[in-house]
Amino acid sequence: MGTQGSGSKPIKVLMVCALGMSSSLLESKTKEAATKAGVPFELKAVSAQEVARWDPTMHWYDLVLIAPQVFYKRRSIEAMAHPHGIMVQGIEPTIFGMVDGEALFQQIMRAMAGRTSSAETK
Which of the four CATH numbers 3.40.640.10, 3.40.50.2300, 3.40.50.1220, 1.20.120.1200 does domain 11-121 have? Predict the structure, then answer.
């Protein structure tokens, strides 16, 4: 059981990279960090081509992360995600290059904390 309780919904993250494969190790290490922290967590890596066919109404995520090599796709991804309240962020090149799952998990947690605090102030 996670520290957030058995009723907690998982944090759902979509990670976009060039082929959907180069990020598989980062995906695995980030999931390990979430498990270690006891946070319910789902992470799916997809290619830039796959994300072009993504339908946010059918497959909703809390956050979309964009790998450095496909950061040029950010505006089109934001156009799909933002109307549905989905955050979009770039992955720091050093986090991606060092395959630092713990650092990426911390970035995700900061993004989620920012979402919660901004929702509380509205």
Answer: 3.40.50.2300
Residue 93 among the catalytic residues: no
Catalytic annotation, pick one of 16, 17, 26, 33: 17
Q: Cα 11 to the chain's mean position, in Å?
A: 8
The span from the CA of 78 to the CA of 40, in Å, is 25
The 10s digit of each residue's pLDDT in 66-75 is 999 999 999 9
Q: Which residues contact 95 (CB under 8 A, 6 or more apart)?
A: 26, 103, 104, 107
CA–CA distance, 70 with 18 (Å, rounded to integer): 6
Distance of CA 22 to the CA centre of its chain: 15
Q: What is the mean pLDDT of residues 54-68?
A: 95
Stated pTM of the model: 0.86
